[in-house]
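lol so apparently i was supposed to do this last week
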Amino acid sequence: MRILCTGAGGFIGSWLVKRLKADGHYVMGADLKRPEFEPASPADFFHLRDLREFANCMMVTQQIDTVYNLAADMGGIGFITSHLADVARNNALINLNMLEACRQNNVKRYLFTSSACVYPLGRQMVTDGMPLKETDAWPADPEDGYGWEKLFSEQMCAYYRKDHGLNVRIVRLHNVYGPLGTFTGGREKSPAAICRKVAQAKDGDAIEVWGDGKQTRTYLYIHDCIEGLVRIMQSGYQRPLNLGTAELVTVDDLVNLVAGIAAKRLKIVHDESKPQGVRGRSSDNLRLRRTVAWEPSIRLIDGLKETYAWIAAQVARDQNPAPVR
Ligand code: NAD
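anyway here it is w/ nicotinamide-adenine-dinucleotide bound
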């Protein structure tokens, strides 16, 4: 099969390209940039293109059977809440143009990576609320900017399915983490930021956590994420599906887990002036289990061990760069 993965220079996309190559497919990548933490992408061809431009979307989807559309302007809660217009505009352009290009180039299957940020804020006001079901997304009150755009683009997928017969998959990802993810610079998400802070801290130091640390989340390890994306693509299911875990922890729990892995005793200082996102969020996977007879199973502690080891190695390398010869 000839597969295109957009966002192939990013975190999830770079892992997905590896998996699709290992499965024996012909894989093209497309992104504004090449993978940051690897010497080269294993893609058969890598388009360095801005997918906000329709002509570029037409070019990268030529003679392609299957598209995983992962490209997005995104980041952690601090980034998406301070770039509402740019994020919504950039992502709307990418997703509108990719859908139309896929229609015109007769792409057989199109997968869109949506987000748990589509769920209404009102359903996420307590730390121990009910796991979010796919139907909970309506009536709509998603995360400003990023979440509204994701919900709109989900609807666009449904309209292209109804009006043009495009075979779509819509996956609502819940907090993906793992090696090769951004861990510094402002776009990193909470697990990566916490691993970096723990790696930089000395035993007995204090590290800062945004909010009061009692907000709850579930986290999806990258290998489960990739397995889920591939299985959902293979399924015939065309409506939104959660892809997340049910292992709910507070952000303080997350810090303590990482500090334990690093064997450091650390104090937590809460900065409640910083954005902390919704109060509590977790994923109901009933529909996922019924659809693909599988659900994520990698325990948070196991995923964090891998993630921390990778980020700690990057931090050590950045602190002690190899001498220039
Ligand atoms: P990422 O930022 O690592 O990767 C996104 C990639 O898209 C980047 O490499 C970026 O350069 C590329 N991109 C941005 N604008 C582009 C443009 N105009 N043209 C071409 N490429 C462009 O993010 P990720 O974590 O790998 O996320 C992949 C997808 O999954 C995104 O759609 C994201 O919204 C979604 N998602 C991720 C998470 C998560 O926790 N990581 C959660 C929910 C949804």
